């Protein structure tokens, strides 16, 4: 069955966002760039954002629940207060990213790089954390309850082989 979700490029998305539209739920937006844009409060829930460059982008209070951010570049992005519950951030670069008060419950964090990210107030229950890197992450101690963790570097540089469930 053909995928009937809307496909957008950066030019079309930015034009519609500037006109006041915020709901881009379920869009397909791959291999493109939105680096440095101000997209606060945008709804990108269930969107495909595979290999998208979102470095330096303001996504504060955005809805990215269920989004696929595979190999996305979120370096130095602002995701403060964003909802990423159920999102897949496998292979994403989140170096120096602001995740303050973000919801990362039920996320897939396989090979995700959180080096020097700010994780103050982050909710991370029931997450899958495999081969992630939290070295030098700020305000982070461990994932929340129900999370599966394996082969992960903690903020203090310690390596956790696992696998283990956090309760």
From TrEMBL:
It comes from Trichormus variabilis N2B. PANTHER family: BTB_POZ DOMAIN-CONTAINING PROTEIN KCTD9. Transmembrane segments: none annotated. The lineage of its organism: Bacteria, Bacillati, Cyanobacteriota, Cyanophyceae, Nostocales. InterPro entries: 5peptide_repeat, Pentapeptide-BTB/POZ_domain. This is Pentapeptide repeat-containing protein.
């Amino acid at each position: 069955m053909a995928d009937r979700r809307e496909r957008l490029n950066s030019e079309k998305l930015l034009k519609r966002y500037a006109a006041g539209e915020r709901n881009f739920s379920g869009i397909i937006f791959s291999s493109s760039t939105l680096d440095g844009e101000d997209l606060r409060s945008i709804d990108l829930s269930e969107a495909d954002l595979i290999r998208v460059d979102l470095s330096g982008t303001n996504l504060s209070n955005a809805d990215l629940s269920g989004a696929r951010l595979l190999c996305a570049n979120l370096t130095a992005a602002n995701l403060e207060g964003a909802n990423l519950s159920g999102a897949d951030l496998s292979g994403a670069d989140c170096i120096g990213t602001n995740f303050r008060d973000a919801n990362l419950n039920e996320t897939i964090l396989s090979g995700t790089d959180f080096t020097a990210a700010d994780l103050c107030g982050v909710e991370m229950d029931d997450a899958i954390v495999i081969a992630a890197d939290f070295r030098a992450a700020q305000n982070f101690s461990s994932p929340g309850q129900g999370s599966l963790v394996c082969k992960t570097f903690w903020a203090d540089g310690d390596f956790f082989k696992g696998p283990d469930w956090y309760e």
